[in-house]
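F.,

This is the one I mentioned.
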């Protein structure tokens, strides 16, 4: 998303279809909907707890109040196109009763609800950016919550932040309790205005020039060996995962400390090192996700700020793991230090056709890595047990999500069935152990 040009209403945000097409590998349909699975939808199970629905609705209302991005109305402006206008909105908790169901029955029903929510198309006109479903069974069976936030306005960092807001708001029993003033964040429009001021001068050109020196030849992050055209390879996908616990996790954490890198950087380097002999080209180039929160006004603001920045890192094909780790560290830190590169500059450089044609998103062979923050939701002192809905749409050839909880490393991914087989993907994941 980006703000409307100067002179337009300050509280209006314009949706940019080609930004979403790069971020999600899909384009908006003509009706404003976006055909893709929602990456910010999770299930939280609370064994033995009967969630107070009116109390939960009050907590949701408070969370929406402090996060203006969740309250909007949609319109199409004749000059600026699809837009959000922030407005008041009170969310509803939808209740699903599974009469007679035990704990396992509640969890199974919640997973079915979540799978259905994942496939609901994004629709800017709908206005329901946040949807919460409460699944309950027989007495003592507990409760499961399905919480979905439209990915057009929420990345993983923002989702984790919303869960924290919701946890705190649920404990505020007194309506007069001072919750909103201590947590209220800036609107997306204020963030955009702050970005425009910073990028209006020489800094914009300096950042752009610095990045162009790092731009990979031919742009793609990592090129898979099979030359199957993107349009000839359907998005039908399968999932694979690995979890490091106990001694295996301790070895991973110790190795990361010894190499002076984060757990995410080490996991990424290990996976790249395992893939390079079979599918990656001679040069190691990649799109590094970066949060895009490069102005003070954006700190703590809920929104989809994550974009991708292609860079080339210097590491020979025959390099060992330590050299690959250092290259990944250097590349990720570089992108984090250059977050202010304007998105239109990125689009200009990586778009190999008309900016709205989707050719970049649909023709490039690519692998996507992302670090996931730890998702925590606590109600009445109980931490919800997290589960992830089924993903069936492989938006990239291979997408990998890496999360370190402090006691275990979780790496899950989805891959295109027509391009990669499960045995190969699982062999890559095994390199983490």
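My design for it:
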């Amino acid at each position: 998303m980006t703000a409307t040009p100067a002179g337009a209403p300050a509280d209006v945000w314009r949706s940019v279809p080609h930004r979403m097409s790069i971020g999600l590998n899909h384009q908006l349909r003509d009706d404003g909907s976006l055909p893709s699975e929602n990456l910010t939808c999770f299930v939280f199970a609370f064994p033995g707890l009967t969630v107070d629905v009116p109390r939960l609705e009050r907590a949701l209302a408070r969370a929406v109040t402090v996060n203006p991005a969740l309250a909007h109305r949609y319109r199409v402006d004749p000059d600026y196109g699809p837009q959000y206008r922030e407005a008041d909105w009170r969310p509803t908790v939808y209740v699903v009763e599974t009469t007679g169901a035990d704990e396992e029955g509640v969890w199974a029903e919640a997973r079915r609800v979540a799978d259905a929510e994942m496939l609901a198309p994004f629709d800017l006109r709908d206005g329901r950016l946040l949807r919460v479903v409460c699944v309950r069974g027989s007495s003592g069976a507990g409760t499961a919550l399905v919480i979905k936030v439209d990915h057009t306005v929420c990345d993983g960092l923002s989702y984790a932040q919303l869960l924290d807001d919701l946890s705190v708001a649920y404990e505020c029993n007194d309506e007069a309790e001072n919750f909103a003033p201590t947590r209220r964040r800036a609107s997306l429009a204020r963030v955009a205005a702050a970005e425009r001021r910073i990028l209006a001068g020489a800094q914009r050109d300096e950042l752009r020039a610095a990045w162009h020196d790092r731009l990979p030849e031919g742009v793609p992050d990592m090129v898979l060996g099979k030359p199957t055209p993107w349009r000839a390879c359907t998005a039908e996908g399968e999932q694979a995962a690995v979890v490091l616990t106990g001694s295996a996790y301790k070895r991973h954490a110790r190795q990361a400390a010894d190499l002076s890198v984060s757990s995410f950087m080490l996991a990424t380097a290990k996976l790249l090192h395992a893939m390079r002999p079979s599918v990656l080209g001679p040069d190691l180039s990649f799109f590094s996700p970066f949060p895009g929160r490069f102005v003070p006004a954006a700190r703590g603001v809920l929104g989809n700020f994550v974009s991708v920045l292609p860079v080339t890192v210097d590491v020979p094909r025959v390099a060992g793991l330590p050299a690959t780790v250092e290259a990944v560290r250097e590349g990720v830190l570089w992108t984090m230090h250059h977050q202010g590169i304007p998105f239109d500059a990125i689009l200009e450089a990586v778009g190999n056709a008309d900016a709205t044609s989707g050719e970049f998103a649909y023709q490039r062979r690519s692998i996507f890595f992302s670090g996931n923050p730890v998702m925590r939701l606590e109600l009445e002192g109980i931490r919800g047990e997290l589960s992830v809905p089924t993903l069936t749409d492989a938006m990239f050839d291979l997408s990998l999500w890496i999360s370190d909880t402090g006691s275990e490393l979780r790496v899950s991914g989805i891959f295109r069935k027509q391009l990669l087989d499960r045995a190969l993907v699982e062999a890559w994941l095994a390199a983490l152990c």
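The CA atoms of residues 105 and 387 lie 15 Å apart.

Talk soon.
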